[in-house]
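Structure ticket #2291
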Amino acid sequence: MGSNGPRGVCRPVLAALLGCTFGGAVLAQEAQPPGKSEPPAPASGPAPAAPSAAAATHQLAELTVAAAVRCFASDLSPCYEDKLPAGTVVEIGEEVGAFRRVRLPLGVVGYVSKKFTGEPEDGMLVTLHDRVSFRYVPTPPNRAMAPVKLLDKGTKLRFLGETGTWWRVLYPAESAFLPIKELKPTSGEKAEAAWQQFVKSQEAGWQAMAKARAASVAEQKVAAERVRRFGSLRDRLAAEVGKPMDQQKLDPLLTEADQLIGELGGTKGEAKPAEASSGGKSAPVAKPDPLLVDAQRLREAIHRQQLLVQAKALVVKDVPVDTKVPTVKAEPKDGLGHLEAIGWLRYRPRSGAQAYQLMKGGEVVAYLSCRSMCYDLAKFDGFEIGVTGTRERGITESSQAISAVEVRRIEVLTPRR
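Resolution: structure written out below.
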């Protein structure tokens, strides 16, 4: 069997053909490389209708070896992903040099860009533009590669999967090529039964992918709706907490949180990763759904706030409120607060400015003077007195400054002892 034709080997053939057919001015996106001996097919236009499997005139052939079907009738042609085991029965068409056109029941596997099609519906894709490239492999964005065929707007394709920005599809109208030497023509009931079995196998594979896609889309919608509900619960809790406690309504939020947690397969309270024990060793299980963990924590927050509201209601209900205005008793005024200094007067003659000392607790608290001669301070020697007057600059004694008071008034508190 010839080479599978890596993409790098195909470039000289493609370049030569494009130069002859289009004069070297056609972009790679619009090019379609044919085989060595087959004239180039038109790049666009109505796709040929796929032959009916039940048609009486169809010809069948059995593969003598395992083979991958080729895009073009050429030894250098790249191959589609379809790899057929020996003994597979395919429908055959005309001969092109050393190759023969073959058709698979639902077409060949290829790729189209998601940018130029809609979303899969019931397992089918429809092109939204003209000249949409149908490729045998997904093409990296930084690499130019001619497509196998350019599809018209409205072309229907069967969905098989997705790879990055590409849909993996079956194109029913596109045939492929195999070397004539790898095919053995066959007919009869046994051959027809083998062909019909191939049809059912491809149909079952496509149906399985279509159902899996539909289930995945449905799950994504449900997951998105649960995320939306979680966000709504969180925002509504924040709004309730901002209200006065006697106006907060948290029961509906708690009910909705329990419902969401139940749908996510969890229980009340925070999710804790569990461990399965086997042979004395603990094996970690799968991590819980992050949304489930967040929902359980949100429920705990709602429950805590509900307990606070209930406790506040009990306190307000049980504690009587005293509506009487409290009577504030005026504190008694200090009767001696108007005096500048209080103490026992001690007279020490021949002491100059320190002759009259006001003592308290055995220490001098002030030196007295009466330059106005209103009082003879010596007569109050031994009395406890209180004086009013003017404080003057202190006298330093034993590194301690003691105030001097010029007396204007004397009040006798305790007579001489």
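Closing remark: The chain has three domains: 7-38+55-187, 221-272+288-318, 341-414.
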